[in-house]
Design brief:
Helices cover 46% and strands 13% of the residues. By secondary structure, it is of the alpha+beta class. It binds flavin mononucleotide (FMN).
Length: 220
């Protein structure tokens, strides 16, 4: 295996779902900026970037969330950086967000916009994305997991530990964030959490994975 291949595989073996971080070790700004940039540059369906990344460094807020986050309690207490990944609601062609993406970000020419909107509508209908609000939200949420994966791999390549987390009471946590005005629940839902820092315990649990032949099949 050449160096880059080995570096990548080593990073995937290094990464594990870290429960307890060393709270004395902070991630350097440059490194965390790189992790955030990996998120921002991630691909998304139709390139609509239906996400937002909230970096929660306020310990009092973390403590509040901890009460309703059984799978994230230790990470909330000890991680150097803690991210809430939000997914956008109702990402349809006529929504404010999609109009902003089409006009301001992608800067499509006005004359092409009706065709673009039609393409988005047809795709969302054919893929059952716009069946209802829930299917639309789940589609946006899927995109956030791509960013999540890229953030964790980037961290691992930098020797930084991480943990993805769904172990929280969605309604209770959302309620806290909404009441504090941190999340506009008309526009966003909390998709998943991610913690970053440096492991407290070394080494972690042995990795368990199915064998390649159990999960990969070549049709030739
Ligand atoms: C979407 C997602 C949600 C997860 N939620 C939690 C969680 O709430 N708390 C936790 O400690 N680990 C959580 N995990 C970590 C998994 O349990 C872990 O990735 C899996 O057991 C494989 O172990 P490894 O990541 O150490 O290789 C989650 C993983 C994913 C991908």
């Amino acid at each position: 295996m050449n160096n880059i291949n080995q570096t990548i595989i080593d990073a995937f073996n290094f990464r594990h779902a870290t429960k307890q971080f060393d709270s004395n070790k902070k991630i350097a700004t440059e490194d965390f900026d790189t992790i955030l940039e990996a998120a921002r540059l991630s691909p998304s369906s139709l390139g609509l970037e239906p996400w937002k990344f909230l970096v929660i460094q306020d310990q009092a807020l973390r403590d509040e969330l901890k009460e309703y986050s059984w799978g994230a309690a230790k990470q909330l207490a000890t991680a150097s950086h803690f991210v809430l990944i939000l997914a956008r609601k109702n990402v349809t062609s006529k929504s404010k967000h999609v109009q902003h993406m089409i006009k301001d970000i992608k800067q499509y020419e006005a004359s092409t916009i009706p065709a673009v909107e039609q393409k988005y509508d047809d795709f969302q209908t054919g893929f059952h994305i716009n069946d209802n609000e829930r299917t639309l939200y789940d589609w946006a949420s899927k995109q956030t997991y791509i960013a999540l994966g890229n953030m964790m791999t980037t961290a691992a390549l930098l020797g930084i530990d991480s943990c993805p987390m769904e172990g929280f009471d969605l309604d209770k946590v959302t309620d806290i964030l909404a009441k504090k005005g941190i999340v506009d629940t008309e526009q966003f839902g909390l998709s998943v959490m991610a913690a970053f820092g440096y492991r407290q315990d070394d080494p972690p649990k042995e990795k368990t994975r199915q064998a390649q032949e159990d999960v990969i099949e070549w049709i030739e």
